Amino acid sequence: MSEANTRWGILYCPKANASKQREKIQRLLNERKVDFDFVQSESSDSVERLMNMLIHNGYKTIIVVGGDSALNDAVNCLMQVERQVRDEIALGVIPNGVMNDFARYWDFKEGNLEQTIDWLVKHRVRKVDLGCIRYTNKNGEACHRYFLNCVNVGLIADVMNLRRQARSLLGSRTLSFIVSIFLMIFHRMEYKMHVRINSDTVKRKVMNMCVGSGPGYGQTPSAVPYNGMLDVSVVYHPELLQLFAGFKLLLTGRFLNHRSVHPYRTREVVVEEANKALVGVDGRLLGTPSGSYRIGVEQEVINFLIPD
Fold first, then answer.
1. Which of 48, 134, 178, 305 meets the CB 3.0–4.6 Å disulfide criterion with 144?
2. Do 269 and 232 form a contact (C-beta atoms < 8 A)?
3. Burial class (CB in 10 A: 0-12, 13-18, 19+), 132
4. Distance between CA 139 and CA 23 in Å, rounded?
5. Can you tell me the distance from the alpha carbon of 53 to that of 111, in angstroms, rounded to the nearest whole number?
6. Direct distance between the N- and C-terminal alpha carbons of the chain, in angstroms, rounded to an integer
7. Is the pTM higher than 0.85?
8. Between residues 304 and 236, which one has the greater pLDDT?
């Protein structure tokens, strides 16, 4: 067996205090006698490049130190290789992003490195589902993107876009998020949509639609990433006071109790029309697809390291 088969590949996506955290991760791995190689990303493009390098160099355990977007890049790289190759690779996560929703679903916590690494060392594998959005881009090309967590259509994707623009001007992640939320008060809040979910047709103005294979940042809290199904929450435009109540329910895990939220469970969502509504995939902006698009699920296609 080659050395790469037994060594872990650690794909590190740094943020603030990167050197201290990196040193702590390396120390904990060394204490547990784990052989590993570290590679560090500089951007989303480098995450894909480094992930492909680890895959093609024969690493069978790949750990992403990052958030939902970095995990999304990793699984999309895995889905580009033959199934025989993919089935030999186990993907793990050490949460280190702005959004760590998929890691949090499995009880991996950013502030508890020791527990996370102890769980990863036990190498308990579970096959998990991936959602997939299939669409046509503005150049008329057929495209697809896989996701572990969720696709947002409408308001949440707009917040992502405003946050990205604010961060390019302000630099600070936290400040850019606060500014983007404030700017939404003056922004478009409804989108004309025509969506087919099971035998139901939604044809009206919608604030946001979340399609989750995972918890969907609190919008699809009952989603299970290994049952071959997608959970969907469609949010109609509430009154102002109901909007604030909705944020409270979102933060307390009771989002589906809001009167303006309409939940579904399905294997496929067909978006016939979503007038100028942006689309976000696992916390990253996809843009606005051209014409109709479909969101489906592929069952048990990725080996994921879970807690003991």
1. 134
2. yes
3. buried
4. 44
5. 29
6. 27
7. yes
8. 304
